[in-house]
Amino acid sequence: MSSYSDVLIGCRRCRVELLANLVKALEENGCKKKILAEKVHMNYKQLNRYLGELIRLGLVETYRWNGRKLYRPSRKGKLYLKYFRNLKELLT
Questions:
Q1: What separation in angstroms does the CA of 84 have from each of 30, 49, 54, 66, 88?
Q2: Does the global pTM surpass 0.85?
Q3: Which pLDDT tens digit goes with each residue over 26-82?
Q4: 4-91, which class in CATH?
Q5: Residues 6+ apart with CB under 8 A from 7
Q6: Is 65 helix (H, G, I), strand (E, B) or coil?
């Protein structure tokens, strides 16, 4: 039987895990793009692409605080992260 790393990770991060990592990085507090890019080890161009996808999927939402645009997980994003963690646990 394949291990979790064989199924979900392989040599590179798979899309499902990558999206989960982005949502997780926003889980504690909302943050700016620059800080998020550093947390998930992604360049700005990649981050914009995946962040746009997360917003389109309804996993992340934007809000304004002190005039700054910040990002945080939506309810659906928190549920996605919960299911991802359950799947990861099941496969290990």
A1: 20, 21, 15, 33, 6
A2: no
A3: 987 778 888 888 888 899 999 999 999 999 999 999 999 888 889 999 999 999 999
A4: mainly alpha
A5: 91
A6: strand
